[in-house]
Amino acid sequence: MRRKRIGLGAALAAGTLSVTGLALAPAAAAVVPQTATINANCGIYGGGEATLTATQNGTSATITVTSAIAAPVALSADSIASTLTMAKAGGGTTEFTGTKNPAMAAGDSVTVGPLSGTVASGDSLEANGGSLKMVVLGLTVTCTADGPQSPGPFVFD
Fold it and tell me: Which UniProt keywords apply (predicted)?
């Protein structure tokens, strides 16, 4: 009977240590800020405020863009091919690409993403100086930022 109690006590102690270890484990890599806004200019297709939402998992990152431009017609899910080019602090660019988008009714704000890209720890990426190119129903729409994103560039962990 005594052996069973010792075995049970050891198992409980190991379980407690393992749960404590999980609680103290470092958090997954994160991007700061997670959301930023820009004033976008999409030429003859319109413009206005757009929201960029970023996530990060190691060196993989995604960005979703919700724009101020309205869908001219109903669009089916995953029907927009998009390339988001972000300017890197210190020079160069990073691209996020994909064909992900929700279904949209005519007049809905155009949303694309999550668009996938690769980042390195410490990368600082800004929409100003880059562009968003969307191919919709065979038409290419290119949007650029009219100024820096707010509250600031995305900095990846």
Answer: Signal
The β-bridge partners of 41 are 47, 144
pLDDT in tens, the chain (157 residues): 444 444 434 333 334 333 333 344 444 559 999 999 999 999 999 999 999 999 999 999 999 999 988 998 999 999 999 999 999 999 999 999 999 999 999 999 999 999 999 999 999 999 999 999 999 999 999 999 999 999 999 999 9
Residue 49's CB is within 10 A of a number of other CB atoms, namely: 13
What is the chain's alpha carbon radius of gyration, rounded to the nearest angstrom?
A: 22
pTM: 0.81
